[in-house]
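Tokens in:
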């Protein structure tokens, strides 16, 4: 049977379509994409803007924002497509803008100058449909306590509303659970310090959407990927000195337990839950003969105290800001060289961005004089 010219064209189109679909599938697989990190640069000696570097070729960095007055902070969407940032301006405030990274298109999300507000700390929901941010509104020329607001990224006009309409519910530093249902933030109410947990759909069968966890440390912890637990730093007094340990709250059972020993010879200040839901990275400094000048990074299984593993260990460095990649195989971190190799104080120190690969145990410096690193690829 002879194949007509039309049939041959159809066959070629079908084959090319199959190949195209295959290529898209391969290239869209996070394992096949070049890992990239974003950060603010320079930390000292200039105006801070967002830059992105591939970790296998850090010198090939690209500047993403070009702000005259600088970027306060930023977030990258989980798919690596969008960059939300708080841009400072000549009015002494900051507004929320968003960059379409592939197309280099900038969108003004919230004009905070117009509404006389100071808006910072954008945080994408994992599914990319919402953006949380903190917003302080001006009262007689003075910015008040911040509240958490949301931008609807599915709306053509990018509608923005307060997360909670009650103006007395104030807070900062919003973080999401990986299932998109939980948004946690630290209460800015100094008379009742703690962490507020908001569920878009109430968990546990009691119809309670907003829960309060007392905590006097003043900073957020890390929500488990399923949104059912949170690990957070808490202040403890030992021998007339103030230290920090980690606590864990089960949001379904409404129970609390110590994640690290409050009376142990340790000071634990920061924590990040791995995407696998089983592993936690946290920053620790021992107070006994294992003491180091800075915080060191450790891994621990959530269910047991066994297998406490130091990573990226260097007594001359402090590490307290770090983030997992989406597969839980790498950590990007901000490290500060407090000492020189000879143990003397490093008087010209500046923060550095590094990446640690858990599979190869390789630690790679990405850039000097940069801070607030995040993953910029899935």
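Residues out:
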């Amino acid at each position: 049977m002879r194949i007509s010219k039309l049939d041959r064209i159809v066959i070629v189109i079908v084959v090319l379509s199959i190949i195209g679909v295959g290529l898209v599938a391969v290239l869209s697989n996070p394992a096949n994409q070049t890992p990239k990190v974003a950060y603010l640069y320079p930390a000292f000696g200039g105006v801070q803007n967002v830059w992105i570097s591939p970790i296998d070729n850090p010198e090939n960095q690209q500047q993403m924002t070009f702000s005259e007055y600088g970027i306060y902070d930023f977030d990258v969407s989980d798919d690596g497509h969008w960059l939300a940032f708080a841009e400072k301006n000549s009015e002494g405030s900051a507004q929320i803008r968003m960059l379409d990274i592939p197309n280099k298109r900038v969108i003004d999300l919230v004009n905070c100058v117009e509404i006389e507000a100071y808006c910072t700390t954008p945080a994408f929901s994992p599914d990319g449909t919402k953006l949380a941010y903190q917003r302080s509104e001006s009262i007689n020329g003075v910015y008040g306590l911040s509240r958490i607001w949301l931008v609807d990224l599915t709306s053509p006009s990018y509608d923005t509303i307060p997360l909670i309409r009650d103006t007395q519910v104030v807070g900062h530093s919003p973080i999401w659970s990986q299932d998109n249902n939980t948004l946690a933030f630290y209460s800015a109410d100094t008379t009742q310090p703690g962490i507020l947990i908001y569920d878009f759909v109430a968990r546990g069968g009691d119809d309670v959407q907003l829960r309060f966890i007392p905590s006097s440390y003043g900073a957020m912890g890390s929500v488990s990927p399923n949104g059912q637990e949170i690990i957070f730093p808490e202040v403890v007094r030992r021998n007339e000195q103030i230290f920090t340990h980690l606590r864990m709250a089960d949001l379904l059972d409404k129970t609390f337990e110590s994640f690290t020993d409050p009376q142990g010879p340790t000071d634990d200040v920061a924590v990040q839950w791995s995407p696998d839901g089983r592993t936690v990275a946290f920053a620790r400094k021992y107070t006994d003969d294992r003491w180091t000048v800075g915080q060191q990074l450790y891994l621990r299984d959530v269910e047991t105290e066994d297998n406490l593993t130091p990573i990226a260990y260097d007594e001359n460095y402090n590490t307290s800001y770090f983030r997992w990649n989406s597969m839980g195989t790498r950590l990007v971190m901000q490290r500060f060289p407090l000492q020189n190799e000879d143990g003397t104080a490093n008087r010209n120190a500046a923060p550095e961005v590094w990446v640690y690969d858990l599979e190869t145990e390789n630690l790679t410096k990405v850039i000097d004089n940069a801070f607030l690193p995040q993953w910029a690829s899935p």
